[in-house]
Specification:
Elements lengths: L13 E5 L3 H10 L5 E5 L5 H8 L4 E3 L11 E6 L4 H13 L3 E4 L12 E5 L2 E5 L6 H14 L4 H10 L1 H4 L6 H19 L6 H14 L6 E6 L10 H8 L3 E4 L5 H4 L7 E4 L11 H13 L3 E6 L9 H11 L2 E5 L4 H8 L13 E5 L1 E2 L2 E2 L4 H4 L5 E5 L5 H10 L7 E6 L7 E6 L3 H8 L5 E5 L4 H15 L1
Parallel strand pairs: 1-2, 1-4, 2-3, 4-5, 8-11, 8-12, 9-10, 9-11, 13-16
Antiparallel strand pairs: 6-7, 14-15, 16-19, 17-18, 17-19
Helix pairs in contact: 5-7, 7-8, 11-12, 15-16
This protein binds S-adenosyl-L-homocysteine.
The site of S-adenosyl-L-homocysteine has 23 residues, from helix 13 and strand 19.
């Protein structure tokens, strides 16, 4: 995004425009909708501009621009439609400290004016950074058609009623009230005239105050390893209807995009060894929103039941008497093993597979290293980057073959996925060398299928 859209408060502030022809008139028409203090500088003002001056809507300085003319101006428009004159006036305005726009010249403009759909106080600004003015016009036309002309009036009356509506508890109840107003009752009432709106609002508030509280609910949803196509349909539906989405740091932005547009997104980002939101605070957050009547989606990476501290959150819900359900997701081990073309279990090799964590709350996690050290064992090690040297040492100490294949998969299923095949002997060294920055899973006892095939071929040749 090269241009950041903002709404500038112009009431009582100076806006200066140099020019007196058609380009000036077009910009002034827009600017006259604001409460800015407008000054036009031009030796030859068009009739329309003079009419605005006569109505007291702006001031005209009847000469070419001079240094100091834009003193204290927030915005300056160069609208003389003459390249040299525009460059000159822009230089003067910048020296006076104003932000400048040169009409029809994106390159030289410090700010640009978007296409506007005006339903004051509702204003929609459309920008394409100059890439496609045709597209901006089409979107504007579409919105002009779609947004009722009385939307502005509805919003104005609604705004004056906000304090009254605060009688409703914050969150879903209040949102339901306003949605009912804007999309049902309000539009109906305003068809009878603006005077009918306020009484309609009062009746509506009464109704909403008397309806039973909506019951909140928490879905613990698996967000999968990152690729949005690896979400389940259930996960998508839950995101579609969520009021609040409380998500982990590992959840990709593409997946968050799928949340209902009005949903509140809360990042409860937890980073191994790093700064994080305390588990109790996350529990409290979930309970708070569900108690307010929200449909909460607690979105966890991979599968929520795998190293997700799910139980603590379920207990918190139970203690608060809140209903919940679990939507399973594709865990990092499944995505990682798929990416190297292997199986987690294989007849004749391993009849079981272990999901291990590299560290727990106390530090590096201990496991039954002796069993793991046996030949043919397979384990998916989560959060294993920092513990690599520890795991390597323990396994070798318990008799594991240093040549055991190990594969690290970083960002499994994502566009920036990296696969790093190594061996137990080289694990710590190779992980350090690889400088991994994304989430990484260590598959112990597995090599990518292609490498595996090459290795077994070499072995066959050696024995032949
Ligand atoms: N519940 C998650 C695991 C959370 S623990 C799941 O089922 O996948 C976080 C760890 O998961 C990370 O440290 C990393 O080891 C692993 N992980 C999560 N997403 C990953 C991905 N896209 N690629 C590789 N590892 C991933």
């Amino acid at each position: 995004m090269q241009h950041f859209p903002i709404f500038v408060a112009l009431a009582g502030r100076r806006v200066v425009l140099s020019g007196g022809g058609d380009a000036a008139i077009a910009k002034l028409r827009l600017l006259l909708k604001t409460e800015a203090n407008l000054t036009v500088i031009t030796p030859a003002p068009a009739k329309e501009i003079e009419a605005w001056e006569a109505d007291g809507k702006l001031r005209i300085i009847r000469r070419a621009m001079e240094p100091g003319d834009a003193t204290c101006a927030v915005l300056f428009y160069a609208a003389d439609e003459d390249e040299a004159e525009d460059a000159r006036t822009v230089a003067l305005a910048r020296a006076d400290g104003a932000l400048t726009n040169t009409v029809d010249n994106l390159q030289d403009s410090q700010f640009i004016t978007p296409a506007i759909v005006d339903r004051d106080p509702v204003t929609v600004a459309i920008g394409t950074e100059g890439a496609a003015p045709v597209l901006a016009r089409a979107i504007k036309a579409d919105l002009e058609e779609r947004l009722p002309t009385q939307l502005g009036a509805l919003a104005r009356i609604g705004k004056a009623f906000r304090k009254m509506a605060d009688a409703l508890p914050m969150g879903r109840k209040r949102r339901d009230f306003w949605a009912d107003y804007y999309f049902n009752q309000g539009t109906r009432a305003i068809a009878e005239g603006e005077d009918a709106v306020r009484p309609a609002l009062e009746t509506l508030l009464e109704q909403h105050l008397n309806t039973q509280d909506k019951v909140g609910h928490v879905s613990f949803v698996g967000g999968g390893p990152g690729d949005p196509e690896l979400l389940t349909l259930k996960a998508r539906n839950a995101l579609d209807t969520a009021d609040v989405v409380i998500h982990d740091r590992l959840i990709s932005s593409e997946i968050l995009e799928l949340a209902r547009r009005e949903a509140i997104l809360i990042d409860a980002g937890k980073e191994g060894f790093g700064p994080s939101m305390k588990q109790e605070d996350i529990n409290a957050l979930i309970v708070k929103h569900a108690k307010a009547g929200a449909q909460v989606v607690r979105l966890k990476s991979g599968d929520p039941t795998v190293f997700g501290r799910l139980d603590e959150e379920l207990d918190a819900c139970n203690d608060a008497g809140i209903g919940w359900n679990i939507v399973p997701g594709i865990t990092a081990a499944s995505a990682s093993v798929a990416s190297i073309g292997q199986s987690l279990t294989r007849r004749g090799r391993n009849a079981s597979v272990r999901f291990l964590t590299g560290h727990d709350m106390k530090g590096f996690a201990d496991h039954d290293w002796k069993i793991l050290a046996r030949s043919g064992e397979v384990a998916a090690i989560y959060m294993g980057k920092k513990a690599a040297r520890f795991i390597q040492g323990r396994l070798i100490m318990h008799g594991a073959d240093p040549a055991t294949p190990v594969t690290i998969i970083e960002n499994a299923s994502r566009a920036d996925q990296r696969v790093l095949p190594t061996t137990l002997a080289n694990l710590a060294h190779d992980i350090a060398e690889a400088d991994l920055s994304g989430p990484a899973l260590t598959l112990y006892g597995l090599a990518p299928r292609s490498v595996d095939a090459v290795l077994s071929q070499i072995k066959t040749q050696e024995f032949a």
